[in-house]
Amino acid sequence: MTEDELINIENYLKKVFKTEGFCVKERKSIDDSCEIYLDDEFIGLIYKETEEGENDYQFHMTILKEDLIN
């Protein structure tokens, strides 16, 4: 992903979720996705999908069962 894409994704997440806590980081040697952090905690990946000349982005977040226990 380009630097502009990373910045645009980060700005979008901050706007949609109304928090400045998001940080988007490039992945080493993998250029079709980026890492998403919220307040320094890794929460998922965003993958770039290109189809028919258009780019879309898919957010993947794993929630561990033990994280759901109160």
Brief summary:
The chain is α+β, with helices and mostly antiparallel strands.
Please describe the structure with a list of short key phrases separated by commas or semicolons.
single chain; 70 residues; alpha+beta; four-stranded antiparallel β-sheet; 2 helices; globular
Task: Map the helices and strands.
Blueprint: H1 3-17, E1 22-27, E2 30-38, E3 41-51, E4 54-60, H2 65-68
Antiparallel strand pairs: 1-2, 2-3, 3-4
Number of spatially distinct domains:
1
Average pLDDT, all residues? 95
* Helix/strand/pairing category: alpha+beta
Helix content: 25-40%
Poorly predicted runs are none
**Lateral arrangement of strands in the main beta sheet:** 1-2-3-4
Structural features, described:
A four-stranded antiparallel beta sheet has the order 1-2-3-4, with helices on one face. The termini are far apart. The chain is globular. The protein has one domain (3-68). It has helices at 3-17, 65-68, and strands spanning 22-27, 30-38, 41-51, 54-60. The protein is built from two helices and four strands; from the N terminus they run αββββα.
